[in-house]
Amino acid sequence: MSVRKSLCFLLALLLCASLTCPIAMAAETSLQFVLRTSGEPRVGESLTAELLCTGNPGILSAQFTLAYDKEVLDCTDCKQGEALDGMIAVANPDAKDGATVAAGGVAPVQGEGVLATFTFTVLKEGDCGFALQNAMFTDGSGKVLPFAFTEADESASDGDVQTPTEEKTETALLRDISGHWAEAFLSEGIARRLLQGYPDNTCRPDEAVSRAQFVTFLWRSVGEPAPAAETSFTDVQKSSYYYNAVAWAQEKGYVLGVGDNTFLPDAPVSREEVALFLWRAAGSASGTELLFADTYDKHFTDSGETADWARAAVYWAIYKEIWCGVGAVSVGDTLGAKQDASRAEIVVMMVNYQDKIGE
User: Which of 23, 192, 255, 287 is the most buried (most CB within 10 A)?
Assistant: First the structure.
C-alpha cells in the first residue's frame, strides 16, 4: 500500500472513530506544541525539525501538517516521535500542503516530548515559513483538544530530544516553583540564566537531567563560549542543541566520555557526576577536604556507594559547601551519589558553585 493510500486509509479510520461520538471542543487544555529546529544549515545541508508536545491530557487521534516554504526546503522524511508511541501512524513528507502525519489508537496516550520529526534539505536561503495547519487532536471522549503552537530556535533549549524545548519565562509565571524546597535557588538560577521555564510556564524542578542537559547548564553559566574544535564523541550529532556545549566541555577536559569514544548524552546525570564535572571545571585540585575523608566516610551512611572515581570530587563539593542533599538544601547524612540529579538539585549546586568558586 502506498504512503498516500495508507494516509488516506488511516484518516478515514480516524474520521469513523470521531463519528462514533459527537465531536465537541474540550473546555480547556494545556496542550502545547513547540517546533525546534537544528539551527541554520547552509544550502544543500540537512535541517531537522522536531515538533514537541507538552501538557498532553490524553490524545486518542492526531492529524496535522507542518507547512513550509517549498522553494526554500525539500522535506525528505517525516516520522512519528515517541510521544505517539502505541499509536498506528502514517506520514507523508510530500503532501500538497507540507509534511503530514496522522495517528490513532484504541486508547489515549499521554506521552510528552517529540510528536514528530521532519528532515529537510535546504534548497536556498530564506524564511522556512513553518506553520502547523490542518491540525486536529481528539481525546478519549471524542472532544477536539485546543492547542497552542510556537516556534523556538535551538538556543532556547536545555532539554534533549525527550524533553520539550524551553522558552524564556519570567520567574513569577512559573507555577510549580512556589513552595518548593529549592524555591529560592530556582528563582536565583533563573535570574542568572542557568535554566529557563518551559512553554507551559513550569520549571519541573523534580525532573531528572540528562548528561547533555547538565553540560549545557555549565556551558550557559560561563557565557556559551564557542568551542575551538569539534567533539570526537561519536554519539553527539552536529544537529543537536547541545553540540557546542559538549564540544566545549570536552575541549576543556570537563567531560571525558564513557568509553568507546561515546558520551551518552541522553543518559541521566548522577549526583556524583555533577560533582565530578564541577570539580574538573574548578581545576580538579584536591585540598583540605582530604583531611576530612575519614570523617565523611563515617558520617554519611551510604558513603561506600560512591564510586572511587567520584569520591574526591564529592568530598570536595561537600567541603566547599556546593553539595546539597537529596531533595534538600542541607547536606544531611546520606549522599545519594548514584541517584539521578534533579533540576532543582543541580541548580542548588550550580548557584553554590558560582558563589563559592566565583565562576
Answer: 255
According to DSSP, the residues that pair with 338 across neighbouring strands are none
Residue 161 DSSP SS3: coil
Please report where in the chains the cell 563559592 appears, as a residue.
356
- Give the cell for residue 189: 538560577
As given in the structure block, the three cell numbers for residue 301 are 551512611
36-72 burial, b at 16+ Cβ within 10 Å, e below that, comes to bbbbebeeeeebbbbbbbbbbbbbbbbbbbbbbeeeb
Q: What is the CA radius of gyration of the chain?
A: 23
**Helix (H) and strand (E) counts in the chain:** 8, 9
**Angle, CA 25 vertex, CA 115 and CA 15 arms, to 5°:** 65
Q: What is the chain's percent helix, strand, coil content, to nearest 5?
A: 30, 25, 45
Amino acid code (one letter) for 335: L
Q: Is 292 helix (H, G, I), strand (E, B) or coil?
A: helix
pLDDT digit string, tens, across residues 35-74: 888 766 778 888 888 898 888 888 888 899 999 999 889 9
CA pseudo-torsion sign 224, 227, 231, 237: positive
CB 3 within 8 A of CB 102: no
The domains found in the chain, sorted by start residue, are 3-152 (2.60.40.680), 171-357 (no CATH)
Proportion of the chain above pLDDT 70, given as a percent: 84
Q: Is the pTM of this model over 0.85?
A: no
Q: Which residues contact 263 (CB under 8 A, 6 or more apart)?
A: 211, 212, 231, 233, 235, 236, 246, 250, 255, 257
Grid cell digits, residue 205: 524542578
